[in-house]
Amino acid sequence: MASSAAAQSADAVLDDMAGQMILVGFAGDSVADTRALADMIGEGRLGGIMYLKPNVADLDTVKRMNAAFVAARPDLPPFIALDQEGGSVERLTKAVGFAEIPSAGEVARNTDALGAEAIYLRMARSLKSYGFNLNFGPVVDLALNPDNPVIAKYGRAFGADPDDVVRYAEAFVGAHRQAGILTALKHFPGHGSSAADSHEGFVDITGTLEAKELDPFRRMISRGEADMVMVAHLYHAKFGVDPVSQQPASLNPSWIEGTLRDQLGFDGVVITDDLEMGAIRKRFTLEQSVLAAVRAGVDILLFSNTADPRLGLADEVRGILVAEAERDPAFRDRIVESHARIVALKNGHL
After folding, report:
1. Which residues have C-beta within 8 Å of that of residue 239, sequence separation ≥ 6?
2. Are 190 and 214 spatial neighbours (Cβ–Cβ below 8 Å)?
């Protein structure tokens, strides 16, 4: 009987560890809509949630929803995240009374780093007041390709020069830290020179990626300015571990363990870009992407939950993680390792 109880306890711990590695988008825009989601957080089945525009009916409701998410697990609060870069990439907009800010490109063209920090501090304090604790930014991609369909097209980069990008990205991170908001450098190893959009499908950066695109990541990591690093779904032939599947950086240990951790020295939380983007969804099953990402060194699996919206997505992902951990001790060790990083970040900042 004691042995059975110990086994059940061990299973519960593993289940909770796996749950912390999952961050999902959700349906609904009211406290009533999200009660089941709060229950999942409280039960340790989910480590974080992400807002998109459809989740925002009004700012007061957002604040109450976020308070409910935190109250569900006050000992280990969920990451409550959004993409609030400025310009065209904003989840909170003037339509609901939120003070919008310019895109990164506009900020860099029209103000210095001190002015940029003031802009970002006002925004970050507003985010904090509504209960958010994680902003997916800054973009540290270099605007090397003026025809780039996902970075340059929307002015999401601070510029093409690594010095400029680092200067403004530091202003972004510093402002958010003053306000008590975590950030995530993106999109590793660099989306700015690409000729295609990973939202839509396969993106090959073999012939476009320049060495200097790693500079902002390297410099900000070395200065302790990276809370998280978001890894993109970008394929590079020289970093291929499987020429048949052509695994992108987000599923590739050569990029995550080899370059990001070993060469650039990042020992913090690694999060994927949305695993429902076309570059992943059109080429890999849910199980394939989850298992490959974790084996590659990813700590948090991000799903927008928009391809086939369902409340049970997090449970499906957690089930995949737990089943593989029970089969493979090395995979279980990866979950334990990721859980430790996540808990350390949460305990230190949330």
Report:
1. 249, 252, 254, 255, 258, 259
2. yes
Residues 96-139 have pLDDT tens digits of 999 999 999 999 999 999 999 999 999 999 999 999 999 999 99
> Could you give the CA distance from residue 231 to residue 248 in angstroms, rounded to a whole number?
9
Average pLDDT over residues 277-284: 96
Q: What is the 3-state secondary structure (H, E, C) of 196-252?
A: CCCCCCCCECCCCCCHHHHHHHHHHHHCCCCCEEEECCCECHHHCCCCCCCCCHHHC
Q: Are 202 and 217 in contact (CB under 8 A)?
A: no
Ranges of each domain in the chain: 2-349
What is the enclosing helix (H) or strand (E) of 165? helix 162-179
Contact 227, 179 (CB under 8 A): no
Check whether domain 2-349 has CATH 1.20.1640.10, yes or no: no
Active-site residue list: 199, 273
Give the residue from 191, 195, 174 showing the smallest Cα distance to 232: 191
Alpha-carbon distance of 261 to 252, in angstroms, equals 12
Spatial distance between the Cα atoms of 164 and 61, rounded to a whole number of angstroms: 38
